Structure formats: C-alpha cells, structure tokens
Amino acid sequence: MKLTMLVITTVAVIVLGLQIGSAQTTPEMKVRGCLQGNGSEASPWVLRGAVLPNPPAPPAAAGGGRGAATPGAGGGGGGAGARGDGGGRGADAGAAGQPPAGGGRGAAGGGGRGGDAGRGAAPAPAPAPPAQPPVDLRLTGVDMTPWRNMFVEIDGTLGARPATGLREFQVSQARSAYGDCR
C-alpha cells in the first residue's frame, strides 16, 4: 500500500514538473539582422540590429450585441398607421404586439429591420504597438560560418534576459536574406 502511494506521488510530481516546464518555453520566432563574429569564445556569433516581434496584443473588448426582434417593431409588424390585409386587422394586431395577418407594413418611415435596435457600433481597432528598438543577440545552436558578415534571417527561441551581456538566441534554422550590412 505504501509502495503504491509512493509510485502515484512520484508520477504526479513528474507530470506536474513536465507541464510547468513546457508552459515556460518561449515560442519560436523569426528575426533578421547582420551576422558578425566568427563563432569563437572571444568573438561569438552576434546578430546586430535584430528587431524582435512585438508581444501579443491583449484581447479586444467585446463589441455591442445585437438585440432581439420584437413583434410590432420596425417593418415586421404594424403600428398605429399600418395597413392591414384589407379587413382592418392591421392596426388591431399591431396594437396588440402581433404582426398583421396580411403582412402589413409599418408606419411611414418606420420600416426598419427588426432586431437592429440593440446593435452597437463596431469597436475601434486597437492602435498598433510601437516597434521595438533593434537589439543585438548572441547566437547559439548552429554554425553560422556560411553566412559570416551577411544579412540573415533566423528562426529560433529567445533565451532569458541576462543581467549583463547580450541576450541569447537559440537558432534552429538560418538562411540568407536581402538587406544591407554596413
């Protein structure tokens, strides 16, 4: 019994640790910049002038909802000035909140669509976040010799921000790109 509880507890701790570890990984991103250095400890690969993508924008606020159609409102039902089906039922049915049996029209100027009364204006789009300033990244994970002193585009994950020195970028793919390195 004690052994079973020990195994269950151990498995639970391992699973929880894996979930927490996977939740903290940064998503892969694509950056461009000028490659400098030679890969040695004295002159590591550095991507100069890389512009990191903006962080994800917060979700937009919900817009106004659409109201429900009510009988007798707008063009769907009759009103005080409605024309019925010739039997004089239009005004009576519209006054009771029911549409006329003969498909009467609403009062002059009141022929709108039912249900539009609760519609709000579309929310204004959020302003674009300001562009992040260019940064220098220390590249790890791939030998960048074929792209030395070239403008490159790389895919990878961003490391933690160190207290001093360059921020590390773990490269998964690299390719040459169009651009100037001066």
Describe how the helices and strands are arranged.
Elements: H1 2-23, E1 29-36, E2 46-50, H2 89-95, E3 135-140, E4 151-158, E5 167-176
Parallel strand pairs: 3-5
Antiparallel strand pairs: 1-2, 1-4, 2-3, 4-5
How are the strands of the largest sheet arranged?
1-2-3-5-4
Count of separate structural domains: 2
Quickly give the structural class: alpha+beta
Radius of gyration, CA atoms, in whole angstroms: 33 Å
Structure description:
- This protein is of the alpha+beta class.
- It has two domains: 84 residues, OB fold (Dihydrolipoamide Acetyltransferase, E2P), CATH 2.40.50; 53 residues, no CATH class.
- It is built from two helices and five strands.
- Strands 1-2-3-5-4 form a five-stranded mixed beta barrel.
- The longest helix is centred in the first third of the chain and has 22 residues.
Structure in a nutshell:
The protein has 182 residues and is an alpha+beta fold. It is built from two helices and five strands, in the order αββαβββ.
Could you list some keywords that capture this structure?
2 helices, five-stranded mixed beta barrel, alpha+beta, flat, about 180 residues
